[in-house]
Fold this sequence. Notes:
The chain has 108 residues and is an all-alpha fold. Helix content is 40%, strand content 0%.
Amino acid sequence: MVAPGGEYGERQEMEGMQAGAAMQGGGGGAADLVPINAPSAMPDQPITAGAPVGAGVGPQAAGIPTEEQASVEQLRPLLPSLEFIANLPQSNPETRAFVRRLKAAVYG
Protein backbone atom coordinates (compact mmCIF):
# COMPACT_ATOMS: atom_id res chain seq x y z
CA MET A 1 0.00 0.00 0.00
CA VAL A 2 1.38 3.38 -0.98
CA ALA A 3 0.80 6.47 1.15
CA PRO A 4 -1.03 9.34 -0.57
CA GLY A 5 0.73 12.58 -1.41
CA GLY A 6 4.40 13.08 -2.10
CA GLU A 7 6.32 14.54 -5.01
CA TYR A 8 5.44 13.95 -8.66
CA GLY A 9 6.48 10.45 -9.74
CA GLU A 10 7.16 9.13 -6.23
CA ARG A 11 3.97 7.05 -6.14
CA GLN A 12 4.91 5.11 -9.28
CA GLU A 13 8.46 4.60 -7.97
CA MET A 14 7.13 3.33 -4.61
CA GLU A 15 4.68 0.95 -6.32
CA GLY A 16 7.56 -0.42 -8.40
CA MET A 17 9.71 -1.02 -5.31
CA GLN A 18 6.86 -2.75 -3.50
CA ALA A 19 6.11 -4.99 -6.48
CA GLY A 20 9.64 -6.41 -6.30
CA ALA A 21 9.72 -6.89 -2.52
CA ALA A 22 8.66 -10.09 -0.78
CA MET A 23 5.74 -9.50 1.56
CA GLN A 24 5.76 -10.67 5.20
CA GLY A 25 4.46 -14.20 5.54
CA GLY A 26 5.64 -15.16 2.05
CA GLY A 27 2.17 -14.83 0.55
CA GLY A 28 1.55 -18.52 1.17
CA GLY A 29 -1.82 -20.06 1.41
CA ALA A 30 -3.34 -23.52 1.31
CA ALA A 31 -0.32 -24.77 -0.65
CA ASP A 32 1.84 -24.32 2.50
CA LEU A 33 -0.39 -26.49 4.69
CA VAL A 34 0.85 -29.95 5.63
CA PRO A 35 -1.84 -32.62 6.02
CA ILE A 36 -2.19 -34.06 9.52
CA ASN A 37 -1.54 -37.57 8.20
CA ALA A 38 1.65 -36.58 6.31
CA PRO A 39 4.85 -38.39 7.28
CA SER A 40 7.08 -36.62 9.80
CA ALA A 41 9.67 -34.19 8.51
CA MET A 42 11.84 -35.25 11.49
CA PRO A 43 11.39 -39.02 11.83
CA ASP A 44 14.42 -39.45 14.13
CA GLN A 45 13.14 -36.93 16.69
CA PRO A 46 10.78 -38.16 19.44
CA ILE A 47 7.36 -36.55 19.56
CA THR A 48 8.09 -35.43 23.13
CA ALA A 49 11.20 -33.42 22.14
CA GLY A 50 10.98 -30.01 23.85
CA ALA A 51 8.50 -31.26 26.45
CA PRO A 52 9.43 -31.48 30.15
CA VAL A 53 8.68 -35.25 30.09
CA GLY A 54 9.47 -38.13 27.79
CA ALA A 55 12.27 -38.84 25.34
CA GLY A 56 14.23 -36.14 23.55
CA VAL A 57 15.67 -32.82 24.64
CA GLY A 58 13.94 -30.89 27.40
CA PRO A 59 12.51 -27.39 27.11
CA GLN A 60 15.71 -25.69 28.30
CA ALA A 61 17.84 -27.46 25.67
CA ALA A 62 15.22 -26.64 23.02
CA GLY A 63 15.42 -22.93 23.95
CA ILE A 64 11.89 -22.74 25.36
CA PRO A 65 11.80 -20.23 28.23
CA THR A 66 10.07 -21.05 31.50
CA GLU A 67 7.02 -19.03 32.50
CA GLU A 68 9.18 -17.14 35.00
CA GLN A 69 11.78 -16.28 32.35
CA ALA A 70 9.07 -15.08 29.97
CA SER A 71 7.52 -12.91 32.70
CA VAL A 72 10.89 -11.40 33.61
CA GLU A 73 11.52 -10.52 29.96
CA GLN A 74 8.10 -8.86 29.72
CA LEU A 75 8.70 -6.86 32.91
CA ARG A 76 12.31 -5.88 32.13
CA PRO A 77 11.39 -2.65 30.27
CA LEU A 78 9.08 -1.65 33.13
CA LEU A 79 11.76 -1.98 35.80
CA PRO A 80 12.67 1.75 35.96
CA SER A 81 9.01 2.68 36.50
CA LEU A 82 8.54 -0.08 39.07
CA GLU A 83 11.67 1.07 40.93
CA PHE A 84 10.27 4.59 41.02
CA ILE A 85 6.99 3.31 42.48
CA ALA A 86 8.80 1.12 45.03
CA ASN A 87 10.83 4.12 46.20
CA LEU A 88 7.77 6.28 46.89
CA PRO A 89 7.16 6.89 50.62
CA GLN A 90 3.65 5.40 50.41
CA SER A 91 4.86 2.20 48.70
CA ASN A 92 4.08 -0.97 50.65
CA PRO A 93 6.62 -3.65 51.65
CA GLU A 94 5.17 -6.17 49.17
CA THR A 95 5.82 -3.81 46.25
CA ARG A 96 9.39 -3.21 47.40
CA ALA A 97 9.98 -6.95 47.81
CA PHE A 98 8.56 -7.64 44.33
CA VAL A 99 10.86 -5.06 42.73
CA ARG A 100 13.87 -6.51 44.61
CA ARG A 101 13.03 -10.02 43.32
CA LEU A 102 12.55 -8.70 39.79
CA LYS A 103 15.90 -6.88 39.89
CA ALA A 104 17.58 -10.07 41.11
CA ALA A 105 16.01 -12.03 38.25
CA VAL A 106 16.96 -9.40 35.65
CA TYR A 107 20.50 -8.71 36.80
CA GLY A 108 21.27 -12.13 38.28
